[in-house]
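#structure-requests
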Amino acid sequence: MQYDPIKRILGDVFNQTPFLRRIFYHLLDLLLLRAWHVHKELKAWALARKGKEQHILDAGSGFGQYTYFLTSMSDKWSVLAVDVKEEQVSDSNRFFRAIDRQNVVFRIADLVQFRQPNSFDLVLSVDVMEHIEEDVQVFKNIHASLRSGGMLVISTPSDQGGSDVHSGDESSFIEEHVRDGYGIQEIHGKLQRAGFRRVEARYSYGKPGQISWRLSMKYPLQLLGVSKIFFLLLPFYYLITFPFCLLLNWMDVNGKHESGTGLIVKAWK
């Protein structure tokens, strides 16, 4: 299953006006369980910082929805959002200028090479590391780019069925991934080797989240991969499944999971 062509289609649909793009962000925030988990961590981090100047790196910004969330929380925070895809960077810069967000800039950058020493209080990396082979180098770059006491937040698939891989002979549901997922000890060790003094990791996408992901993402994307005509059917599909997905997402983000197909990782310099 190739996500990128579908992402481009969605981008074309929702990037026509700033209003539609805002709607797109809100839909992603509701449907994507990872957004629920990431927002929870960002809100906890923000509690003592909303009135203070903070410098944030969105490392692999994609559509820019997490940068939008962060810049909505405080106008005293400045965000540098980087991504390797020129089209997404260009679209995001246009959108944020159109809505007059002055505290953010998007740039093209490769995280394997990007390093801006002692610059950021927070680095956010959402569903990025599973796409990068040279992950330890990226962790070293992020560590160097953080200020003392700064925090890195990562959302990534785990090795407990991440990328919808449940056995050794299965391939990733998302073909762009270079790894199916991380083990907790694996990513803990790599972050320590990169220089982080403290690392915490927990599972996301437990049983409720796995059901929600199939209903809200996997099955619709499979249908869209068959034919674009299913775009017309999606509103009716979500009308039925959406309330169940919201409940399942709430259960997942408020529960503790002994295993799960996702990881939320925090590391401090």
